[in-house]
Amino acid sequence: MSKPRTLLHVFSTFNVGGPQIRFAQLANHFGPLYRHRIVAMDGATAAMARLGSGLDAELIEVPVHKGGTVKNLGAFRRVLSRVRPDLLVTSNWGTIEWAMANLDHRTPHLHMEDGFGPEEAQRQLPRRVWTRRLVLPGSTVLLPSRTLLRIATEVWKLPRRNLIYVPNGIDCARFAHAPDQTLASRFGIRNYVPVIGSIGGLRAEKNLLRLLSAFAIVLRSRPAQLVIVGNGPLAEELKSAAEARGLSDNVVFTGASSVPERLLALFWVYALSSDTEQMPLSVLEAMAGGRAIASTDVGDVRAMVSEENRPFVVEPNAERLAGAILELIEDPARAASIGNANRERAFAKYDQSRMFAAYRRLFDGDLTGQDGAEGIAEPGPGNANIKKVS
């Protein structure tokens, strides 16, 4: 038996978020097939708790000098020489200096882009655009959304032959869960009024202040409750904002949860209020859980959800989001029908088994892309010939 391939994964942070959750899914699924070496550039490592105990996974500490690109490049090259990975896997803009350190492509390189922070919610920053244009043409770039495919071709001008489309996938069966009344009692979640829920990091790009504003509009029409699951840098600000708006009695902050599926099943409607997303895992989870979704029209959300749900994917303002939520909670039968359609779509298109097959090829060194698999939306102008894996 050949020895496991060594993969060096670089994250700007290894706190829990979408890319880190996906990595844990993959690593736990593949088990002993790969040796994982992990760099967290900010030193945060909370996502290690998501990895199974039997994995060959090890953190590597690398000194990172903010603004010290030359020093960083030297340090990163030394790590590559010492670890000698079979594949370098970098994640998002925060790891771009590793691509620069590997500009001679001595190590095969897979770069993954999942989306943008609030600073790029409205437009691409020119310096980052030009850096990607200059640094990434010789790398394989993996993208989970059609929106990012368009940006990679039309804005970053990357060669189409190097782009691979792999939609995110989840364990759909995990989210087909009955409501957990014990958790409902623990957090004071009511089952006699409509419950609107949202799950994710409490960060600026999620724009949960917009969701609080939308919920305040909903309360003018009827009693309801908002449940926000997650943690992050804006936790205290959001709690203060809810109190200042007189919403505290009707808003529950649960903090982070390792069992989001048990809370998701308590929601009547799932709400997403983000300024920027690409292919949010939380929407896939809500779909698999049979929830109707009221969302801002960001990234691929409109293409992800069922056709019946698309009228409730609206322009990003509080009034429109509130209108979508109200329409769903005032017609429970329609919301249930939409939820069922979402569940069917999630199981048919976004179960993690398809994602595992794609990443197995990539981690084994096939970085050329695979044709023939159906994507989540029809190719649009500028991306019709892009390679895809699903």
Provide structural commentary.
With 390 residues, the chain is α/β, with parallel strands linked by helices. The chain folds into two domains: 5-169 and 352-363, Rossmann fold (3-Layer(aba) Sandwich); 172-349, Rossmann fold (3-Layer(aba) Sandwich). It is built from 14 helices and 13 strands. The strands form two sheets. The protein has a seven-stranded parallel beta sheet, with helices on both faces. Strands 10-9-8-11-12-13 form a six-stranded parallel beta sheet, with helices on both faces. Helix 7 packs across helix 12 (318-329) and helix 10 (281-288) packs across helix 13. The chain is globular. The two termini are 28 Å apart.
